[in-house]
Model the fold of this input.
Amino acid sequence: MDLKFPADLKYAPTHEWVRMGGDIATVGISDYAQHKLGDIVYVELPEIGAVLEKGSVAGEIESVKAVSELFMPLTGEIVETNGNIADNPAFLNSSPYGEGWIMKIKVSNPDEIKNLLSVEKYQELIEKEED
Done:
């Protein structure tokens, strides 16, 4: 399995990635998550304007194998969602860190970022899951 894990991102134990830009977090699912899910056929995006707590369910990702919940990696308000993946969910498989981003969050509590995993810690987590 030749998976990619950009070092400039933070990762949630639930396999979402976070890219910070000021107080806006762009969120998607990791290469590992899309690989485990298989071919993604549907994405339920959160409502723009919704304020959700860290750890709460923001949406669903449906693949040919399973339905998985999409979790909020940080508390905040949904300010944008990626309409392209609603029309073409395969972007989550083909470009999980690019065209396959899912949502943008205006972060309410920047301190929560410290609880996300570095790329090294995330890779350790995956190795444990694979054992």
Summary: The helical segments are 31-37, 83-87, 91-94, 119-130. The CA atoms of residues 14 and 71 lie 7 Å apart.
